[in-house]
Specification:
96 residues; mainly alpha
Length: 96
Amino acid sequence: MRISIAGERAHRDAEPADLSLRRVFPYAPFDEREAPARYGAIEAHRRDVSGRLARDIGAAVAGLDYLQNITRDLVAPTVIEREVLEVLERRSGSLR
């Protein structure tokens, strides 16, 4: 399952149109079988919060808020720029 971040592209021209939930939240305790349900819940949360704030909060913020504050799947997440993560992954030899 993929989560769209197309609305956030204005700030990051090189960003792909969408990323997998596992790529955005690599340590969240759910698997790809659960991803469609999570995606739907995150999108509903995004619409709800965006409506309340009268602006689009974006998929990444909605996902982070949902997984940390609603389901409590994430306890103390760290935000890292994708480019920095890719460099660290290459240096460590790990592939996610």
